[in-house]
Amino acid sequence: MKFTPRLPAENVNVSKTHPLVEFAWLVGGLVLLCLLVFGGLGLAVDLVVDHVSLPVQKQLGDMVLKRMPTKDEAALQKRLDALLAALPADSPLRRQSFRVLLAEIPEVNAVALPGNTIVVFAGLLREVTSENELAMVLAHELGHFAHRDHLRRLGRGLAVTVLAVMLFGENSDITDLVSSLFLPWQAGYSRRQESAADRFALELLVARYGHAAGATDLFARLVRQGGRRPPRLLASHPWPEQRIGQIEVWIATEQLPTGFRQPLGADLRRLAAAVSLEPESVSSSLADGTRH
After folding, report:
1. Residues 86, 207: contact at Cβ < 8 Å?
2. What is the DSSP string of the chain?
3. Distance separating alpha carbons of residues 125 and 289, to the nearest angstrom
């Protein structure tokens, strides 16, 4: 009788499933596990951030400020105080004190840091053309404080990074893969935060000036200027066209009035002209704050 070799019908070491199918199941399982872990961490962070004391927040904010030289500017603080005075009487932000600092960084940006600190970059101060535009930016950052976005984003990023390093090591390819999988999820979460902050800013802008003029001016100017953009899936902010469209929908739906834009005060113009724009931006390393 001729011997014909064949695999046993039952063998735990030999699979009848195609290797590509098994690979797909493995990757799918890893993605599902990561999503479950990220989701759990996100919920845990959301529960914790509401109980982070202001002194702890200030310590976190000071850690960032050590890497970003800033200075107090009375002209900016005056505009922030005017916005705070326009908050509804029952707003929790009225029970807190905020400060705004100026960083001589050429990027058109602003960040909300733990500890009730807003940092306006010199590039942004040079870019705005009316007090309404500046107020929209400052109100947007106050919106992040109202929703505690700055702590949620910081907490989620830190929790995922620490967990990945603990499980897979600091220089592991799996750690890099987990971080890559985390980025689109975090970016989508960030875009929702930005949209909510825009909504808050629009309401505060109207409360401050009595109309919504200037709400989209800065975004429109950035669109005209163009420039490089990150992939849509990884973008932490909605694209300017989307922000303009959404804000205009809110204005039209609620029939908000529009009025005259208030020119920049002489103190702001002098400040914008005096600031130096350092060629080397340090903002790229500031992943902790919540940006405009």
Report:
1. yes
2. --------SS-TTS-SS-HHHHHHHHHHHHHHHHHHHHHHHHHHHHHHHTT--HHHHHHHHHHHHTTS--EE-HHHHHHHHHHHHTS-TT-GGGGS--EEEEE---SS-EEEETTTEEEEEHHHHHH--BHHHHHHHHHHHHHHHHHTHHHHHHHHHHHHHHHHHHHH-TT-HHHHHHHHHHHHHHHHHHHHHHHHHHHHHHHHHHHHHSS-TTTTHHHHHHHHH------GGG-SS--HHHHHHHHHHHHHHTT----PPPBPPHHHHHHHHH----SS--GGG--SSEE-
3. 18
Token pair for residue 214?
A: 């200037």
Taking the CA atoms of residue 59, residue 280, residue 130 and residue 240 in that order, the dihedral angle to the nearest 10 degrees is -90
Q: Which amino acid is at 162?
A: V
**CA pair distance 270, 104, nearest whole angstrom:** 15
Average pLDDT, consecutive stretches of 10 residues, N- to C-terminus, the chain (292 residues): 67 70 82 74 70 78 85 94 94 91 90 90 92 95 86 67 65 64 60 88 96 92 73 60 91 92 92 73 39 56
> What are the b/e assignments for 15-47, b being 16+ CB within 10 Å?
eeeeeeeeeeeeeeeeeeebeebbeebbeebee
| Residue 119 dihedral angles phi and psi, to the nearest 5° | -110, 120
**Which distant-in-sequence residues (6+ apart) come within 8 Å of 265 by Cβ?**
75, 131
How many residues are listed for the chain in this entry? 292
List the one residue out of 149, 270, 262 whose CA is nearest residue 198. Answer: 149
Residues 6+ apart with CB under 8 A from 159: 41, 44, 45
